[in-house]
Design a protein that fits this description.
With 84 residues, this protein is an all-alpha fold. The chain is built from three helices and no strands. It is elongated and about 65 Å long.
Length: 84
């Protein structure tokens, strides 16, 4: 039969369309319900928060280094959330 009129292909395309709409809906829900992070002001990296968020927004690749215990692991994910 014709590719476009084949019932099996149409079912698969409908399934893909449904998954696409579900994915879009899920993405919008996540964006609307993004957590509001709180920052630990006792960690040295927090002093650079605004500068790091600006760099996240303007750079495709960003390398951040700092001393052990400076807050890289706990604070940078929050900075990324703030950057969107």
């Amino acid at each position: 039969g014709d590719f476009l009129t084949d019932g099996n292909v149409q079912k698969k395309l409908l399934g893909l369309e449904n998954r696409l709409h579900a994915s879009i809906k899920k993405k919008l829900w996540r964006k609307e319900h993004r957590p509001d992070p709180s920052y630990n002001i006792d960690l040295p990296i927090t002093e650079k928060k605004d500068e790091i968020i600006q760099a996240i927004l303007s750079c495709q690749i960003l390398i951040i280094s700092g001393e052990t215990g400076s807050g890289k692991t706990t604070q940078i994910p929050k900075f990324c959330l703030a950057a969107g």
